[in-house]
Amino acid sequence: MTRQRISIASVSEPEDGRVGSQCLKVGEQLYISGQIAFSNGELVGAGDPLEQCRQCFRNIEAYVAEAGGTLDDVVSLNIFLNDIRYREAAIVARSEFFSDPGPGATVVGGVDFAFETVLAEISAIAHISKNCSECGGR
Known about the structure:
There is one protein chain. By secondary structure, this protein is of the alpha+beta class. It is globular. Strands 1-2-3-8-6-7 form a six-stranded mixed beta sheet, with helices on one face. A two-stranded antiparallel sheet has the order 4-5. Helix 1 (about 50-65) packs parallel to helix 2. It has helices spanning about 50-65, 85-95, and strands at about 5, 25, 30-35, 40, 40-45, 75-80, 105-110, 120-125. It is about 20% helix and about 30% strand. It contains two helices and eight strands.
């Protein structure tokens, strides 16, 4: 099956494409790598776990849209927090971005990130069907 890299302007890709991709579309599945609260190379929401989670979801939303879908197509999230006490911020942000029923989610706390200022990282899987009668043919 063909893998297609999906890119957005506000998030950079690794210099060496063999190292990885921020987002891949394989058939009707979209795999979005862990997003951190960076936009155009700058941290969004320093010290604010809620704003960092929001920016992660903004990035995810942009990837899904670029692939032709909406956040309603997201079926699974992995949410990593450097402090499990930020769980409530992740819940609030999820409620702002997703409709009922929201995607399944796993939340892990106590994570050490590559950048000390990063408080959250969120990856996602979406199913984007071009022939779905229930989703308006997206």
